[in-house]
Amino acid sequence: MAKMNLIPYKVEAIEDTAKEIPQGVQMIQAPDVWKQADKGSGNVIAIIDTGCDTDHPDLAGQVIDGKNFTGDGDDTDYDDENGHGTHVAGTAAATASEDGITGVAPNVKLLIVKVLDSNGSGDYQWIIDGIKYATDWEGPNGEKVRAISMSLGGPKDVPELYEAVKRAIDSGIPVVCAAGNEGDDRPETDEYAFPGAYNEVIQVGAINYNREIAPFSNTNNEIDIVAPGVDILSTYTEQKYARLSGTSMSAPHVSGALALVTSIAETQFDRKLTEGELYAQLVKRTVPLGYPKSAEGNGLIALDILNRFEKLFQSFNTFFK
């Protein structure tokens, strides 16, 4: 079976310190709903990637469990020798240390599933096994994974990979995947990476801070959502910080957003929502940017948009009373 790889990404800068809420986290309006969502408390996100620097001060308390499927070291060694997995984890759920950054959902817990080696490469079987592990995992207090985040991809549609993804979704777990970075800046031409291109997953494209589609972002008829993916500040190995670019960086913005949406919507409905219902709640919180659907899908995540509409209607009704 062929190899699966990290979706290529660009290292823009590595920094020793960072003290801020990153621009991407602000752009999707995460801080505006933190109070309403209790910052995602009670949710677990599975990060299926290169592992995680669990000693990083902004991630130290976030990791609830994990497993290594790569064959490098024993299965309890899910440390990150690449940097990519740590960066993804931080975007989803970093909780600012004294001098640190804050992720999209700072109260969630992370299940670290290491399926790619230090070079960012892995067997398809490692990824398949990792997805199955995340689907079946249960925490010490009965916790279950509420979202799976995968910033990896390959050119081959492998039936066993599809079956593993489908099983996770059928178990009620939304699967968030990076679209891939083979884009040619032309929405009319299709570029596919799997598992992102499967209809059942939430496939995420990248935009920059000017709300423009990143030229590298894959476009195809299965794009669901776009999120910030250019010059994204997050945690990195050796307890540092890095600015990276790629659809890999966009996906965890959506994984973290899903945790916040899950907390808000399940409180409102007073029950556990299905995968389809969670996707619907997520899509309700998007704004179109004016690009073809093949580039932006439903548009940019805007977590506070419903609250803003509500305030607008209230003031509108007051004005006409």
Automatic annotation (TrEMBL):
CDD domains: Peptidases_S8_Subtilisin_subset (cd07477). GO terms for molecular function: serine-type endopeptidase activity. PROSITE patterns: SUBTILASE (PS51892), SUBTILASE_ASP (PS00136), SUBTILASE_HIS (PS00137), SUBTILASE_SER (PS00138). The active site is at residues 49, 84, 248. This is Serine protease. The keyword Amino-acid biosynthesis does not apply. It comes from the Bacteria. The keyword Flavoprotein does not apply. Residues 40-283 form the Peptidase S8/S53 domain. One of its GO terms (biological process) is proteolysis.
